[in-house]
């Protein structure tokens, strides 16, 4: 969420940022916000004047009574009663104006960082060449993951569709264990080597939590909502980031680094016709999430660090991948800068996203009212928040299947996962 004071003082910068986001009517948006702000501040001034006059008149009532000037006292009492009603109406108008201003601010995306490339869609994303790792495995006629999984008898979309509809899957036997192994491996790596604290967070959250991380109100159609008013988390980012909502932390506590392996739920309302086969785009999937809460001075370095941690998972698994800096038109709503990590899938003969690591600056913190007290300062400052996938477990399983497939249809298991698989080194079709 944006700070109206920043917009007031840095109008040109704000307008330029919105234009970089592809918002063509940025000037009229800024005009509207400033007009709302002026109306609200003018009302507050009138309210302060009325409250000051009421206080003065109340004191004068006592003086008039002490002087036995009843007519003056009655006149003042009538004035105070009128001011009280005027203030009540003004406070109600203030709530209406403030909510309208906040709603207008909340609908606008974060302003991109200065080093984010401009562009309208994914075609303008720029590869971070120095971060590319590994080489694509040479294969003759590689198969896609769903063909491999169904041939193994361990991946069943048809039965899942009878139970839940499209974009669900049953994983069985060694593939179910492989998914569990991947989640455990990722959590162990992030907690033992990279200093993240493991958290088992709530999966059902209230409106204010989803608002705090920016999914509401703009992306309501992409979420699942219960009949009792809760939202199923689209990512553990929601629960982990809101851990510090409405709190004031000490600078010495920062950075906070959290990780969680959870189910995630997405309606995929805007994905009609995309990835209709397989496990790339599911309504329910599991993901290991990374969240950092830090200071403005360290958030850029923390972003690089988080991306390195996510990449390490792929490196340990021996999976060829690249890192893309997303352009202004392809970034998420709350992000000021995002790196997408894309893994090579031989069956699709292309790179596919397996992680997004984003620096949100103070955008989410303002929505959550999450602050910290800097050492030696009396006031408080907004924290910076970051989030990333470390990694999407289902997509990592897809990458293992396609990159480690053998000519006989079996799947070789990466060395680092074998301890989690009870020593199993290969997944083969079960005898019927």
Task: State the gist of this model.
Helix content is 41%, strand content 19%.
Structure description:
It is built from 12 helices and 18 strands. The chain is an alpha+beta fold and 432 residues long. It has 2 domains: 103 residues, Helix Hairpins (Orthogonal Bundle); 306 residues, BirA Bifunctional Protein, domain 2. The chain has an 8-stranded mixed beta sheet with strand order 1-11-12-13-16-10-9-4. Strands 5-7-6 form a 3-stranded antiparallel beta sheet. Helix 2 crosses helix 3 and helix 3 runs antiparallel to helix 4.
Distance between the termini: 57 Å
Segments where pLDDT lies below 50 for 5+ residues? none
Q: Give the structural class.
A: alpha+beta
β content, as a range? 15-25%
What is the rounded Rg?
28 Å
Number of helices: 12
Return the CATH architecture of the largest domain.
2-Layer Sandwich
Give the spatial strand order of the biggest sheet.
1-11-12-13-16-10-9-4
Strands, count:
18
Largest sheet: 8 strands, mixed
User: Given the C-alpha coordinates, what overall shape results?
Assistant: elongated
Report the average pLDDT across residues. Answer: 96
Helicity level, as a percent range?
Answer: 40-55%
Helix-strand pattern: HHHHEHEHEHEEHEEHEEEHEEEHEEEHEE
Oligomer: single chain
CATH superfamily of the largest domain: Bira Bifunctional Protein, Domain 2
| Fold-level CATH name of the largest domain | BirA Bifunctional Protein, domain 2
Level-1 CATH class name of the largest domain: Alpha Beta
Counting structural domains, the number is 2
